[in-house]
Amino acid sequence: MAEKKISGGVKALLELGPVALFFIGYIKLKDQVFTFGGTEYDGFIVVTAAFIPLLLLSTGILWALTGKLSKMQIMTVVLVVVFGGLSVWLNDERFFKMKPTMIYALFAGILGFGLLRGESYLKSVMGEMLPMQQEGWMILTKRLVLFFVTLAVLNEIMWRGFSTEAWVNFKTFGLTAALFLFFMTQSRVFSKYGIEPPKEEP
Q1: Per the structure, how many domains does the chain have?
Q2: Whole-prediction pTM
Q3: Residues 24-39 pLDDT 10s
Q4: Is residue 15 part of a domain?
Q5: Which end of the chain has less Cβ packing within 10 Å, N or C?
Q6: 140 with 189: CB under 8 angstroms?
Q7: Phi and psi of 42, rounded to 5°?
Q8: Which domain holds residue 135?
């Protein structure tokens, strides 16, 4: 399927909407307990069970509209289904809380493996959106590996040492803000190594 363009607003809604709804659902149901088939499930598990098909639906719509999904998006969906499904199946919220750790550790591992081969796998994902010299991609990839490792460690600290509510806030706002701030602070790399697209002839 050929890649198609959609507006940034629609793309952001499909990518961030499920996370926002997860947060809202948790806030509303966090103190409630539900019984299904004779087993009690707290609000976190119920919201997690709803989040999985919601993410699959939004990702499917994004693929239908654009004709393309990045490898990172696909891996994220797979890990959400696996770890979220384990949390629901075993009625144990710890598996879903581990999911960001696994995601960031996997991303760091893949990008780090590319660096060992002298390549930037990040370029293959973002190269079309952000034309940049190879040296710039290598610098950005090294920094992103360290950043992902840091996020993985922080997630472990948060879910093991703090309350579920604190972890949900960290996951919803802290991780999102951290990613935004990281790329904002890389502006010097983008400006120094960025490649200007060729101007079209009038």
Answers
A1: 2
A2: 0.83
A3: 999 999 889 999 888 9
A4: yes
A5: C
A6: yes
A7: -80, 170
A8: 93-195
